[in-house]
Specification:
Blueprint: E1 4-7, H1 17-30, H2 37-44, H3 49-59, H4 67-82, H5 90-99, E2 105-108, H6 113-123, E3 131-133, H7 146-155, E4 162-166, H8 169-177, E5 181-185, E6 200-202
Parallel strand pairs: 1-2, 1-4, 2-3, 4-5, 5-6
Helix pairs in contact: 1-2, 1-4
């Protein structure tokens, strides 16, 4: 049976979830907006960028109104914080490279395309990724399955021929709604999410083999 592999980016290939949680907490604090840590977790983890910013506006009590301005401010914080540490998840990147030797591999993310492209270069996987989909490529973010169904279509595969690698509840839900197999990455010391719908969970994606799933 033919196979294709779809990787999420944030939290799956790049350990950015914790960074983005801190970014959004910093943004709220800069505008004197009180939002609990639990609320920030809820709006950030596994969400498309535009959905995060729309929720930010809703929580701002009228202090923030422009999605583009929020995005610019958030990414300025993100770039400052990213340079202080290596956020590449080695096991996930190694798996992506290994799978790409025998099957099509793509990235389906809620981040904007320019951010994904930068991430691909940062990981050094330009030759391993067949294509990528970002927030500009589809209208409804995860848990809607739209991005994964689009990825399968572009690979010329049926949903049941695809395996998705995810780390979040919305991402896992989207993969299963798309009718795909899903492997959830659960990293130690990270915010816990409900990934119980996944076919299997791993603490390191380099442990993945075809036999597992």
């Amino acid at each position: 049976m033919k196979k294709g592999y779809i990787f999420d980016l944030d939290g799956t290939l790049l350990d950015t979830e914790l960074v983005w949680i801190e970014v959004m907490e910093r943004l709220f604090a800069a505008h004197d907006i009180f939002v609990s840590h639990e609320q920030v977790l809820k709006i950030v983890c596994g969400r498309a960028a535009r959905d995060i910013y729309l929720d930010t506006i809703a929580l701002s009590n009228g202090k923030l109104k422009d999605v583009n301005a929020i995005a610019d401010e958030a990414y300025s914080y993100f770039e400052e914080m990213k340079v202080s540490s290596d956020i590449r998840i080695a096991g996930s990147i190694n798996l992506l490279k290994r799978l790409s030797l025998t099957a099509p591999v793509c990235i389906a993310s809620g981040s904007p395309r320019d951010v994904i492209e930068e991430g691909i270069k940062y990981m050094g996987v330009e030759e391993n990724v067949s294509f990528f989909l970002g927030s500009e490529d589809y209208s409804d973010g995860k848990p809607n399955p739209m991005v994964f169904l689009l990825a399968a279509e572009k690979m010329g595969l049926k949903p049941e021929e695809c395996v998705v690698f995810e780390d979040s509840c919305p991402g896992v839900t989207a993969a299963k709604r798309a009718g795909m197999k899903c492997v959830a990455l659960v990293l130690p010391d990270h915010p816990k999410q409900d990934v119980s719908l996944a076919d299997i969970t791993l603490d390191d994606l380099s442990k993945y083999t075809e036999e597992i799933i």
